[in-house]
Design brief:
Largest sheet of chain B: none
Strand content of chain B: under 5%
CATH superfamily of the largest domain in chain A: P-loop containing nucleotide triphosphate hydrolases
Strand order of the largest sheet of chain A: 6-7-8-3-9-10
Oligomer: heterodimer
Order of helices and strands of chain B: HHHHHHHHHHHHH
Number of strands of chain B: 0
Strand content of chain A: 25-35%
Radius of gyration of chain B: 19 Å
Number of helices of chain B: 13
Number of helices of chain A: 12
Largest interface: A-B, 26 and 16 residues
Distance between the termini of chain B: 30 Å
Structural class of chain B: mainly alpha
Order of helices and strands of chain A: HEEEHEEHEHHHEHEHEEHEHEEHEH
Number of domains of chain A: 2
Number of strands of chain A: 14
Structural class of chain A: alpha/beta
Helix content of chain B: over 70%
Chain lengths: 322, 248
Amino acid sequence: MEDARLTHSENRRATTLQRSGAAAEPTIRFHAVTKQYRGGGGVDEITLDVYPGEVFGFLGPNGAGKSTTIRLVLDLIRPDHGEITVLGLDVRRQGIEVRRQIGYLPGELTLYEKLTPRALLTHLAHLRTGVESSHFESLAKEFSLDLDRPIKDLSKGNRQKVGLIQALMGDPKVLILDEPTSGLDPLVQQSVHGQIRRACTEGRTVFLSSHVLSEVGQIADRVGLIREGRIIAIDDVTNLRRHSAHLIEAETDGQINLDDLRELPGVSEVNLAGRTLTFKAAGPLTPVMSMLASVDLLDLVVREQTLEELFLAFYAQNHAPS
Amino acid sequence: MVAWTLGLFTYAFVMTAIFPTIRDNPALKTIHSAYPEVLRSLFAIGDMTTGVGYLRVEVFSTVSPLLLIIFGALWGGDLTAGEEDRGTIDLLLANPLSRQRVVLEKWAALVTGLVVASLGLGLGALVGIVVFDLGVSVSTLTAATVAVCLIGVLFGSLALAIGASTGARGLARGVTTVLAVAAYLLSTLPDLVDWLRPFRPLSPWYHALGTDPLASGFHLWHLGGVAVATVAVLGAAIVGFNRRDLGT
């Protein structure tokens, strides 16, 4: 499963690199964009290019500035300085043209409670022009959403489906999805990921935000890490995975050779306290597991690094004395 | 909106229905002159035994304009600021629409609502005038209804402008109500307070209703002034909304 995902992601990365290698114009371009709020928060000097056919994952904890960045693209808020273009159009001066090309899912989605999904989607399709009702009907079928139940009676997951459908309908050239799968059950998540993949194989561009590392890892080609309003790293998902390690805690009878363990590729921070051995393993787990299998293993906990820990790793790296 | 329209219709009709008992009460012929001057001018108390005088006091001088202003302020203050407050503004403005178009379309809805509500008021009064024989002409009734409608539209637009420029719904409604009361006082108080007289033309209330349209019909220059003020306020709403960070 893990391997299959990696292969898929790597394939797409290759495609993206080819496209960007052919000097493609970026679909979304942020140039030194700053937006500070009076009460604090905002984003600082964001510079970022997102290319056609790419799924760009914007990853950061809540309050890091993901939604601020996204709402700047939609011209819902205005930058203090800096410039944002979408498909070569300035989002301030040519906002209407820009938004004609964008399907947007708000992060804090609120819908018109009194309407049914059908009425809302019909209304929005009318505002966009050129969106057939058959399109949102087929999306509703795929996400198994009842279009005729009033929105006020819908669960959070079903509301999120309405939000996704309105963003996806009409196959916009640019999809901007703020936390797209929050509140969705895994089956629908898969459908959403499928839609995102379809969009990028059609050469459309997807910019999505998430605070969940595993989701971005599954779906994105490249990832930008944002923390406290600043982008601290932009990297391919595969590189990010290399930084992302497993944290392993094993209870053994103490016969393991710690020096041998330290020599294994990707292993670090080895520590033995009593019978509890903890260490960090980046990269393939097989060598580590076969070594552990050779001793008496009383207990074993393997967990993926959390986003917070990944950030700290990046931070440590960025602030390392040169 | 339906409720407001029906309410205004019923209010105007019921008030006219009471008229015959007032008219036939001889004591009321003189009672108004017994009120102190300050009360007479503040609450527009006049001769209640004529149809025009009665309808002016009970319906058109204070109650119905205030009701339409409240209706306009509640709704106008909610038009954009309510969408920001609830968070639906993202869904709306992510579409290929200009903010100007959003303000204009919402304003058009507000005006339509106020016109319909005013029609309810006018029709209720008209039916009553005919049934209970108040002797008010259709043309002066129309003039009074139009005046009341225009003042409602002006203050509804003001609430829209404050809401669009600040994103604060409560502020929009509150400030609008205060300004409407101020406009009312500035229209009526100069009868008693001489030094206020030069400032009276600043009050839109004076231009709409101070001319006593129920008795004297249309005063196009005065109504035009209210309309110009409305357009200016609408322009401010567009400019104010265009400049802002929304929903923050």
